[in-house]
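Changelog-linked ticket: 4AD example.
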Amino acid sequence: MKNSNRAYISQLKDNIGQQVTLAGWLYKSRSSGKIQFLIIRDGTGLCQCIAEKGKIPDELFDALKHLGQESSLTVTGAVRADDRSVGGYEIAITDAEIISPAGDYPIAPKSHGIDFLLKNRHLHLRSQRQWCIGKIRHTLIDAIRRFFNDNGFTLIDTPIFTAMAAEGEQTLFEADYFGQPIHLTQTGQLHLEAAAMSFGKVYCFGPTFRAEKSKTRRHLTEFWMVEPEVAFIDLDGLLELAENFVFFIVKQVLQENRSELEILGADIPALEKIKAPFYRLTYTEAADILTGQKTKDFLANQLGEFKAQKNDYETKIADLEKQQAGQLKQWRKDKIAAELIELRSELAEINTKIENNPKHAKLAAEFQWGKDLGGSDETIISQMHDKPIFVTHYPKGAKAFYMKTDRNNYKVVLNFDLLAPNGFGEIIGGSVREDDYDLLLSRIEQQGLNRENYEWYLDLRRYGSVPHGGFGLGIERTIAWLTGERHIRQCIAFPRLMDRIYI
Ligand code: 4AD
């Protein structure tokens, strides 16, 4: 492989007029008589490279013309700026070397169902959408670490094997640990509380496991969560921390990944609105909203909009099907087929929304104080707001044993969920922790948890207990919100889902 003058696509702006060599894969190509347009990707971006018959040996021109999608190659040529070109630069090819030709690449741009794409995730990762999401995920994780590192937090790596259940025993993945039953962790929080009593402000960041029998677009069985924990903090302090944190990570992604957000069709103006203060509702206020007239009207109005969208999709589909029946060139047929796949999936989505709307309206109207907010309840509240919403003070019975009872109202706990706006729903869950030994012990016993496993956790209340608290932010849900991806399975390279692990 020729490595002299090796350049990366993302740096071509520094190489205008120079002869460079790119090394990458053939993303797409098209020919126009004596010119072959090759779009090459090299991991840093896309670049149109132009081979002109007569300017390179005929044999090479023919080889490039017949090169299959995702073949690997190097191309050498002069760089020129061209606004019309993808990425803004072009290479006029003077030489090229085919490293490994690929034939019959299974994923043609844009025309496959989700099941097929998940089975081929090892290849689909090369698609532009997956690439953009991966870049955004990278920025997000970097921003998260930066925020905590720059604000005096110490990173603590909490264990993955644990005997403790923190978020309900129903969602534990069991493992056999040399004959002892043990679980994969649902949260690093309990261990992090011990570390907070040593370092003051700490965070952990790692994979988290939930055997949640839920096939919704918001659930993975393995997801990544960042959890800060702070000694000497109250609920207001926690909300302020979460607000500053979310504002910072959104700002970083807007700064670093604007072009990726644009390619993904994310709602950038909506993200630009994410500034403090976020909305604050108590659970009781949220329950009143759900059962109120405003929500009834809102949902009825939404149903009307869904039906109009359904009509629109059906008309477009019928029109394309009519065109498909006529005599067409192959490229046009392929384009229509790809458009139909997209439109039919949009239509299926709208049909589901139309079917769910009355069910969700009924659930909201009949919502009873004391229940946890369901996914559809969160969606409704989140759809009615344009900035993130803190919902605080949930009923004790609906929440985890470690949450601190509100001393002004023993029915509720000092906790919060943060709902991302515009329908995305919960991205953070957090609370002040019960710091009173007796109250904590009675919660552990009430929930039927094995006290022996929690003795060390109770020690934290025996020796210098302090008010403390923290929260957990789910990485994949946050990416789904930022990018506008409907399903969080698209927001991690190799998703683990309830019904199936694909690769
Ligand atoms: O609300 P959760 O269950 O909170 C905790 O685990 C606390 N121990 C955190 C803490 O206080 N340190 O989960 C926190 C977040 C959710 O808001 C959501 O973003 C994400 O984790 N999450 C999931 N993401 C994907 N798939 C799942 N099955 C998820 N369950 C929770």
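Closing comment: Example verified and attached. The longest strand covers residues 19-32. The first helix runs from residue 58 to 65.
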